[in-house]
């Protein structure tokens, strides 16, 4: 795929929305495309996460182990999904397993590349920080809405 196609894909991802094409060019140029054959894992729950993946084509089933260690479906990620975005900021473990439902392709964005963009473009840091804060506040609201069930 062409660099411009990758830039267009990245611009449709919420974390990268409102970041200019010139800045996304740095990410797209430094990122790595990977093909994942149907049935193969992109990553496994509990593994160290040093990068995020943007789904460029195909679909991935997302599973999380239950208390007995059996995989339980938690969702499907398709075109434009960003998997393990927190890995762009800090060292974390994968929270789920992602397995290709069909032949798929991803854009691998590693942490040093993302940090380079933040260092070169401080205004992007402000946008990313606001998006992360909004995501955390939304998660807190969802947890608070469930609190009554566990009282």
UniProtKB/TrEMBL annotation:
Highest taxon of the lineage: Bacteria
Domain Cyclic nucleotide-binding, first and last residues per copy: 15-118
UniProt-listed Pfam families: cNMP_binding
Residue ranges of the TM segments: none
Database matches in Gene3D superfamilies: Jelly Rolls
Stored InterPro entries: cNMP-bd_dom, cNMP-bd_dom_sf, Env_Response_Regulators, RmlC-like_jellyroll
Name under which the protein is recorded: CRP-like cAMP-binding protein
Organism the protein comes from: Sinorhizobium kostiense
